[in-house]
Design a protein that fits this description.
The protein is an alpha/beta fold. It has five helices and four strands, in the order αββαβαααβ.
Length: 189
């Protein structure tokens, strides 16, 4: 299946996969709601961003370049601005994912601490319960044991499972941010 996916893309002379984007003008790569903003303050079009993410996810770790094919010629300054916009946008997305991953890790560490604390209290109370034989203390001890395991499970599950999507997105955004971006027009081909 992977070979079939890669065969859908053209290769450059340097044996890089070419992610082709065809549009009329460079302005089409930006959101419509901020048309009057200068290029440096505009957001990239959601469709454009989604397409890039989908393509890079599909080709995984293969070397690639982004080739934007315009129907109308663009000024040199516009070309450099779109290259910079792609770079800056995906570095920003990487930073957002990194912050979210850190927040998950922080929550996980708190849950780990709470779970360990509850487990120690539960062990202490279970020794006391064994000596006293109190039913109420036994129920409390069992409740604390369950709460400790739930807290520990959440912490461990976050470390082992939930952080992986963040790592993948961070890697993906970094790949796109550092990709070579070329802009051509129909007349240049």
């Amino acid at each position: 299946m992977r070979k079939e996916i890669l065969e859908r893309y053209e290769l450059s002379g340097a044996n890089e996969i070419i992610i082709n984007i065809a549009t009329d003008r460079i302005e089409d790569l930006y959101n419509n709601f901020d048309k009057k903003s200068p290029f440096l303050k505009k957001d990239l079009s959601e469709d454009f961003v989604t397409y890039l993410i989908d393509c890079v996810s599909e080709i995984e770790k293969e070397k690639f370049l982004i080739q934007i094919n315009l129907d109308t010629p663009a000024e040199t300054s516009s070309v450099s601005r779109v290259q910079n916009s792609i770079h800056q946008f995906f570095l920003y997305m990487k930073e957002l994912e990194t912050k979210q991953m850190r927040a998950k890790a922080k929550t996980s560490m708190i849950l780990l601490g709470i779970g360990l604390f509850l487990a120690f209290i539960s062990l202490f109370l279970s020794n006391t319960t064994a000596q006293n034989g109190s039913l109420a203390l036994g129920v409390l001890t069992e409740g604390l044991t369950v709460a400790a395991w739930v807290s520990l499970w959440e912490a461990i599950a976050t470390f082992l499972i939930r952080w992986m999507p963040y790592r993948k997105k961070i890697s993906l955004y970094e790949q796109i941010a550092h990709a070579k971006v070329t802009v051509t027009t129909e007349h240049q081909k």
